[in-house]
Amino acid sequence: QVHLVESGGGSVQAGGSLKLSCITSGPIRLQYCTGWFRQDPGKERERVARLHRGGESIYYKDSVKGRFTVSQDNAKNTLYLQMNDLKPEDTGTYYCAARSSVGPCIRESDFDSWGQGTQVNVSA
Q1: Are 17 and 84 in contact (CB under 8 A)?
Q2: What Å distances lie between residue 116 and 41, 54, 122, CA to CA?
Q3: Model pLDDT for residues 1-34, shown as the tens digit of each residue
Q4: Could you please report the per-residue DSSP string of 55-121?
Q5: Which of 52, 62, 102, 120 is most buried, most CB within 10 Å of its CB?
Q6: What phi-psi label fits residue 8: left (phi over 0), alpha (psi between -120 and 50 degrees) or beta?
Q7: Residues 72/84, Cβ–Cβ less than 8 Å
Q8: How far apart are CA 16 and CA 78, in angstroms?
Q9: What does the pLDDT look like over 56-110, one tens digit per residue?
Q10: Distance (Å, rounded) from C-alpha 101 to C-alpha 117?
C-alpha cells in the first residue's frame, strides 16, 4: 500500500476546467493500476478513469470520454485527472486509488490504497 494525497478540487461553472493531482508516497510506477473514483452523497464510489500499468490501457466512464484525461508522471510519483468542459453532473468527491498487485481494477474493493478525497462542484 501507498499513501495518496489529492489536490486540485474546487468550484467552477459549467464548461470550466479543473486538474486534480494525486501524489503517492512510493514509486507510482510500481502500482499495477491507478485510477480516479467519484462519490455522490449516499452513493457508492464509481470508477471515472483508470490506468493499467501506467498507461498500457486506459479506461474512462462513458460520460467523461472526450472531456477527461487521466495521466501519470512516474518521475513525480503523481497521478492526474484533467477535467474539461465540466458539467453539473460531474459534481462529487473525487478519490484517487491504487492497486499494488496483479488483479482486477474495476470496483472500489479492487484497490488497496486511497486518498482522502477532493471536492469538485460544478454549477450550471
Answers
A1: yes
A2: 15, 21, 20
A3: 899 999 999 999 999 999 999 999 999 999 999 9
A4: TTEEEE-GGGTTTEEEEEETTTTEEEEEE-S--GGG-EEEEEEEE-SSS--SSGGG--EE---EEEE
A5: 120
A6: left
A7: no
A8: 23
A9: 899 999 999 999 999 999 999 999 999 999 999 999 999 999 999 999 999 999 9
A10: 22
